[in-house]
Structure formats: structure tokens, C-alpha cells
Design brief:
The chain is an alpha+beta fold. The strands form two sheets. Strands 4-5-3-6-7 form a five-stranded mixed β-sheet. A two-stranded antiparallel sheet has the order 1-2. The protein is elongated and about 100 Å long. It starts with a strand and ends with a helix.
């Protein structure tokens, strides 16, 4: 069969040429006519929503060109999109209306400037649009309802019960609780705020759910190889994730996972992790929480941490006579905040005078002068290995004492 001709050109080619502009028009109309789309964050509209609109328009062009219905595989992206919208709480009727609007706009685009002698081809193009609309309605509805059912399923309840039992250190061999994995990567996560979460109205809630969904998807993908689900309890600020493991993964793999989650969600993620057996999960999560708190209080950047990374801060965060004694080593600098800040910067830059000077916006010679003054006042010089250890510990102790007061 030859191509369907409308307005003197192949209908499929005509539609493909107008996909970019038509996508923008469809998205604009969705936002103007459907309140739930108007309230979606700009990132989601320009990303997920525009992508699925464009894909659907190109699929329609393929259907018209080959004069056949869409295949099951060709509708996979629409099914995935529907499942995502279900997780975000977008109503099904709004989704179906969006597809109807898009198909109607396609018909209007195709039929414009059609000639009387093209009526048979135009009628078949309408039939192809109607068939695709029916297929979309069926595929989207089924995927959406399946996603909602999974969220409320007994399996979900069993996962929640297992997570609760592990976090409380309670037995898991009781009715309604899933069987635990032999080993878990226990993660405590702190999620930064996404700019869209500051939007007024329901859009902020959608942005939060999207952020959580994307972090959870990264965690689920990491756990997928074990055949067991990741156990997560997340809200807008973070939470806990227990990832089932067959064997303890190399630390860089867990670090990469946190980076992947941060990139997917578009927010900074600070986390602590430990690989433990089920009975040790509760203690590991408690320790992880302390580590993340220390990381945030001491101004470290996002990323994944373990106890070894904050060992000195962790130990000195416990009240002791030694803590006070170490903090007093810097007492001569209390009245000279510029010297304290210079010392912190100098140590943070690995005793690099030029790097410290750049961070402080002063000349390197000024850094040298201040370090000499610090040595005279405290009797401790960063150039002496033993003194450097005491100065580092004294700064940590002083910070811990300040935070606890």
C-alpha cells in the first residue's frame, strides 16, 4: 500500500515534521485545561511529560505510515509513564484526558488543508488515530491500576512489616513478615531540597514525591540482582534503606549508588552505610544516624560516609575530660577569630599555603604570618607532626563542645 496523502503530502511525514512544535502546543494546552498538569513542577513538564507527548506523536506517525495498530512493545513507554504518574498521585482521569487532547490536536493538524479528493485517505487516518487512542486508553489504564494495586498489595505490607521489625531489632519469624535477606547494606540518607519543592500549592508535593521515587528507583535497581526488594522508608528529608546483598559489595559501589541517587533526584544526598546481618540492622542504623549528623555538623560535603571517615569527630563527640583539655589548647585564639578560621582553612587544605590563601582571599605571606602567630600563642606548630595531631584534635574537640553547649 502506498502512503496516506493529506494536503498533497504523505500524512506521516507531515506529522513528523510538526512534532516539535506540536509537542509544545499540546503541553501548553494540558497546562491550561487540566489543573493537575498546571500544578506539576516545571522540571517534570519539560522533562517526563514533554517526552511522553513527543514519543506518542511519533508513534502515531509510525502507525499512519505503516497503516497498522501499535504493537505491545511500542506502548511500553506509555505504560511506564502511567505507572510513574500513579506513584506520584496524578489521577487516572487526568492522564486519559491528556491523551485524548493530544490525539484530537493531531487530528486537527492532519486534517488542515485536506483536499476533497483525499477523503478516503483522511478517513483511514482518522481510523488509525481512533485505534491508537483505544490502545492507549487500555494500556495506560491497565498499567496505572496495576501500579496502584502494587502500592497497596499484601507484598508491600509484608515489606513494611519486615522493615519495621529489622529497625526495631524484633524477631522476623512471625506471620505477615517477609523473610529477611542474609545480608543488608543499611543506609541512612539525608536528601537536600529540590528547587521545585518551594513551589506554592500542590506542585511542591508532586516534586517531593518525584524526588523520593527517583531515589527509591536507584536503590531498587541496585538491589535488583539479588531477586529481593529493597526496603525503604523515605520522606522529603531522607530516611532509611536496607538493600539485600548476596555478598558485601566493594565500598566504591555503594559510593557510586549514592551518587546515582543524587543525580537522579537532582538533589545533594548525604549518607552513611554499613553492611550487616539482619540482627545487627537496628544498631547499624543508629550508628549511621550519628555519622550523618556528624558529617552535616562538621560541614563536610554530600556523599557516602562510614565510621572510619569521621572516627576522630565521633570519638570526641562523647563528653570526657580529654575533650575539654583538647579544646583548651586553642583558648589563646578565642579572642582572635581570624586566626582560628585561618587554622581551620590551613588544615582543611592539607597545609597548602597558596590554596589556603585563595580560600581566605589573602596573600600567602599573610597565611605564613598568621600560622607563626598561632604557633607563638598556642605553643603548637602545624609543621611539627605531633603538634599537627594535637591541633587537629583540638579543633574537633572545640567544635564538639560548641555544638553540645
Amino acid at each position: 500500500m502506498g502512503p496516506l496523502i493529506v494536503a498533497g503530502v504523505p500524512a506521516a511525514a507531515r506529522l513528523r515534521a510538526r512534532v516539535p512544535a506540536l509537542t509544545r502546543r499540546v503541553v501548553t494546552r494540558l497546562r491550561s485545561e487540566l489543573p493537575v498538569y498546571a500544578e506539576l513542577p516545571g522540571e517534570e513538564i519539560a522533562g517526563d511529560i514533554a517526552d511522553i507527548v513527543q514519543y506518542s506523536l511519533r508513534l502515531l506517525a509510525d502507525v499512519i505510515e505503516h497503516r497498522r495498530p501499535a504493537t505491545h512493545g511500542e506502548l511500553a513507554q506509555q505504560r511506564d509513564s502511567a505507572a510513574q504518574r500513579a506513584e506520584e498521585g496524578v489521577p487516572l482521569d487526568a492522564i486519559l484526558t491528556a491523551y485524548q487532547i493530544g490525539m484530537a490536536m493531531c487530528w486537527a493538524e492532519l486534517s488542515q488543508d485536506a483536499r476533497p479528493d483525499e477523503l478516503p485517505d483522511l478517513k483511514e487516518a482518522v481510523d488509525r488515530i481512533m485505534v491508537l487512542q483505544r490502545q492507549l486508553t487500555s494500556a495506560v489504564s491497565r498499567a496505572y491500576l496495576q501500579a496502584r494495586a502494587i502500592l497497596d498489595s499484601q507484598e508491600h505490607v509484608g515489606r513494611h512489616a519486615l522493615l519495621a521489625a529489622l529497625l526495631a531489632g524484633e524477631p522476623t519469624d512471625r506471620p505477615g513478615v517477609q523473610r529477611p535477606a542474609a545480608l543488608y547494606a543499611a543506609l541512612t540518607l539525608r536528601l537536600g531540597a529540590h528547587p521545585d519543592e518551594t513551589l506554592p500549592g500542590p506542585g511542591a508535593g508532586v516534586a517531593t514525591r518525584r524526588k523520593i521515587r527517583r531515589v527509591r528507583a536507584a536503590l531498587d535497581a541496585f538491589a535488583a540482582g539479588t531477586g529481593e526488594p529493597a526496603l525503604t522508608s523515605l520522606d522529603s528529608s531522607g530516611g532509611t534503606a536496607l538493600l539485600p546483598l548476596a555478598t558485601a559489595p566493594p565500598w566504591p559501589e555503594l559510593c557510586a549508588l549514592v551518587g546515582t541517587a543524587a543525580d537522579a533526584a537532582g538533589v545533594p544526598v548525604t549518607a552513611a552505610a554499613a553492611v550487616v546481618e539482619p540482627l545487627a540492622v537496628a544498631a547499624a542504623v543508629a550508628e549511621n544516624t550519628e555519622i550523618v549528623d556528624l558529617v552535616e555538623r562538621t560541614g563536610r560535603g554530600p556523599g557516602l560516609y562510614r565510621l572510619a571517615d569521621v572516627l576522630l569527630d565521633y570519638q570526641l563527640s562523647r563528653p570526657s575530660v580529654a575533650l575539654e583539655g583538647l579544646a583548651r589548647l586553642l583558648q589563646p585564639l578565642e579572642a582572635k577569630p581570624e586566626l582560628l578560621y585561618t587554622l581551620e582553612t590551613y588544615l582543611r587544605h592539607g597545609l597548602d599555603r597558596r590554596g589556603s590563601a585563595a580560600a581566605l582571599h589573602i596573600h600567602p605571606n599573610t597565611v605564613d604570618y598568621r600560622i607563626r602567630r598561632i604557633a607563638r600563642l598556642t605553643g603548637l606548630s602545624p609543621a611539627v607532626p605531633g603538634d599537627l595531631q594535637h591541633l587537629t584534635a583540638a579543633l574537633v574537640a572545640r567544635r564538639a563542645r560548641t555544638l553540645s553547649s
